Amino acid sequence: MASGKRKIENGADAMSSPLKQARADSSAAAELKTADELSAPLVDGAGGDSITCLHEVSYPENYEMPEKAEPLLNKKPAKEYPFTLDPFQREAIKCLEAGESVLVSAHTSAGKTVVAEYAIAMSLRDKQRVVYTSPIKALSNQKFREMTEEFSDVGLMTGDVTIAPNASCLVMTTEILRSMQYRGSEVMREVAWIIFDEVHYMRDRERGVVWEESIVMAPKNARFVFLSATVPNAREFSEWVAKVHKQPCHIVYTDYRPTPLQHYVFPMGGDGLYLVVDEKSTFREDSFQKAVNAVSETPNKETGKWQKGPTRGKETAGPSDIFKIVKMIMQRQYDPVIVFSFSKRDCEVQAMQMEKLDLNNDDEKKLVDQIFWSAMDCLSEDDKKLPQVSKLLPWLKQGIGVHHSGLLPILKEVIEILFQEGLVKCLFATETFSIGLNMPAKTVVFTGVRKFDGDKFRWLSGGEYIQMSGRAGRRGLDDRGICILMLDEKLEPPVAKAMVKGSADPLNSAFHLSYNMLINQMRSEESDPEALLRQSFFQFQADRALPKLEKRLKELEEERNSLVIEGEEELKSYFALIEQWREMKSSIRDIAFAPRYALPFLQPGRIVRVLSDEDNDDEELSIGTTIKGYWGVIVNFEKVATATKDFVEEEDGRSAPEPKYMVDVLINSVTKDENSRRKTARPVAMDSPGEPVVTAVPLSQLESLSAVRIYIPKDLRPIEAREKCKKTVLEVLRRFPDGIQLLDPEDDMQVDSKAYKKVTRRLEAVEKMIADHPVASSPSITSRLKILQKKNKLTLSIRAARTEVRAASTLVFKDELKSRRRVLRKLGYATVDGVVEMKGRVACEISSADEIVLTELIFGGNFKELSSEQLVAVLSCFVWQEKSKNAPKLREDLSGPYTQLRDVARRVGKAQLDSKMSIDVELYVTSFRPDIMEVAYAWASGAKFSEIMKMTDTFEGSLIRAFKRLEEVLQQLIVASRSIGATELETKFEDAVVKIKRDIVFAASLYL
């Protein structure tokens, strides 16, 4: 892949055409041209900071550059702007006018929309068709409204709404684009330009694959405009597009922020802000350290140990902190402010704490009331009385808003409109508010630095922080944007730096296979699943990694081959004996430290040796050496509850559950892992520099107990008390230069288990074999053993590297593709020759729910006997993913159909398992959640929305989203039934749509 690259700065001469660049060598091995080779940097004549952007081009292999580019100056601009364009906007527009694809990678609010608007204006000028795609329906609606005001010939297709489908410019979700591609829609034959907004969404775990499919399957004569937040691997993405579509793809990349940001830290429980990153992007280490030190430390009053979690949720810290910050922001006129939380409930709790703040005057209150009720006019009288509607209005009048996915869509939109009009001064929002919607504020506040990502709580990534903090600072209104990070736990400078000064997250593929994709590919004449896999960004990234992996493998092999050991075979047998000896020592320790033997000796003050959990490569490998450990003093021990039970064998042969114990030990330590949630200890030798702290270790981590006990004070919280204990231990170690006397397991601890005696006898035999071994007396034995150990480690690394190379050299997902094809054959969706059967024709129409289980239910006749209401209830199990705490018990006429659904799901799961798919059948079955079956049944039966809300503890918005997705699934089932001539089913599905598509659930968007 050949590329050209140059740096453009704010200056008139930067307008030279990208196609006039030095002709880059188009062979695959061509290197990037440097910025100097391509154009001299130009400086902003105004004397301020220069606004720079980087312009690169990726060419496909063997690409022949056109001899002469058509001069762009002769063309009348498709659209003119009342302001001076930034260099990145000008460069991108020139690429468009040259008829070549471009990826614009720039910060939030930098002005990427200008490029999209120009592409549309240019297409309309040249009588071409253009498609604009966005990741979410709400954003599509908003963009449709904006574009309709700007251009006349605009249509909208989101699945929920279709307006003017024959328009020259079509706004749609990426899912709609993909389904049009599979259906071979006429639009796809006519489209000249496709704009992918927020293309970094491609890394989304669930939906990212839709972007990849759409890009790969796009018409070969189409050109692209990709709009993205800053991504460090933009070049890799453009090279992939150039390769797949055999056309040049430009990257116009800018790190420029129209409004610079200042980042502050507010320590919870504190009362001041600390500037940690200034507007010139300088990280202030000293200021950050002061902020961290101000975070209240709450050691356990018994032991002096650090708390395991943050102080969040403690009554002392919560309400006052957020109230203090918002009040301070208002007093300093830093509003409007967006306060980001990572939970819907937190947003509402925090908004409630603003009771005493009134941010709007009387005229603004009247205006809020007027806008609010004119928006609610489309609702029925009952819906206007919903608790969420009545709860939000008083907040909105105060100038306080809430924005999260649990809100009624109409309320979300009215809050967005009020925020844009400056009538909401403080908005409590979840992360989704930072995606797509162009609604900047002057200030952004983060109420926490951790988020739950579906698996675990983790630090915010640099990319997530950049995305949300990018909302701070309004272009042309603010001279700087302000970000405030509320800190409620210890955070090391490198972690903070990675967050507030980190780079954006790379754009990595989230490609995965689905049956719908596979059947659609098999069904389409021009497509084939292997070709799609081969052209995916996932495969492209894997192929790129291969040379590096091969190089690493070669280096490892060369390093191993360079290690020559005299008498290697004899040494290997000696090494194996030592390993055996160490394992036996470990087994003896495990038996001796079983609770029944060890607990009587865990008195406070006993000197104990704690095993290190570090790598022990530097340890001498010879008889008599044990695993690395550190001396400490026992303070206390306690029994702990565990998720799993280990069983130990009793003397009579029976198994009994083994309880778990944690021992509090005072050890000398240095601060551990900078990513650690709390201040934990890495043990070091007693005579090393460090601070004595009390840390909890599992009983199994004790290596030996000494016969010596020392006096320890009752209160170990003061550092002086702990230092005194440390000095006493050092004095004991000094008095016993040959080693402290240890408790003997048999004589002192009364260990009399058969297993202990058996291992001890074997240990003695192994020790004799080691002593008699021919290499035992060799003077260089220690150094030779170390080389052998290094060689063994290298062998393991080589094995792992070979596996990686093998995986990278073959087609990714190849095995999964075979397994999925097996499943389709087994269940009758396709023949051995890959011909799609009737079942397959149904499954390929279903993309919003589990296509295989739904198809099995259709062909199994499970829907025939059900009423429309029961049908809606059963289908709700396919679209509901949230956990509900108190889901009502299922009535009889719903529990039967639900049991049938589970049976079908279990059969499908087993078919996948038999076809060598990696699947947990029971987990798969329970993924069909019955939590809202009763609610869905009541709604389809004509109940009011206020009535069904009393049946569940879930958020209104979550329920509406589920019903909308349910309608989407029903529409797909209507098309699927029609495709096989099942008119009775088609009528039933249509009737179900009529019953659920009403009132507030399907209220029209305010943007339309």
TrEMBL record:
Coiled-coil intervals: 539-573
Source taxon at top rank: Eukaryota
Disordered: region residues: 1-28
Domain Helicase ATP-binding: residue ranges: 93-249
Keyword rRNA processing appears in the UniProt entry: yes
Gene3D superfamilies: 1.10.3380.30, 2.40.30.300, P-loop containing nucleotide triphosphate hydrolases
GO-annotated cellular components: nucleoplasm; TRAMP complex
Entry keywords, A to Z: ATP-binding, Coiled coil, Helicase, Hydrolase, Nucleotide-binding, Nucleus, rRNA processing
Keyword Cell membrane in record: no
InterPro entries reported for this sequence: Beta-barrel_MTR4, DEAD/DEAH_box_helicase_dom, Helicase_ATP-bd, Helicase_C-like, MTR4-like_stalk, P-loop_NTPase, RNA-DNA_Helicase, SKI2-like
A family per Pfam: MTR4-like_stalk
Annotated localization: Nucleus
GO molecular function annotations of the record: ATP binding; hydrolase activity; RNA binding; RNA helicase activity
Comp. bias intervals (Basic and acidic residues): 1-10
SUPFAM superfamilies, per database record: P-loop containing nucleoside triphosphate hydrolases (SSF52540)
Domain Helicase C-terminal span(s) in chain numbering: 353-519
BP terms from Gene Ontology: maturation of 5.8S rRNA; RNA catabolic process; rRNA 3'-end processing
Family recorded in the similarity comment: Belongs to the helicase family. SKI2 subfamily.
Protein name: Uncharacterized protein
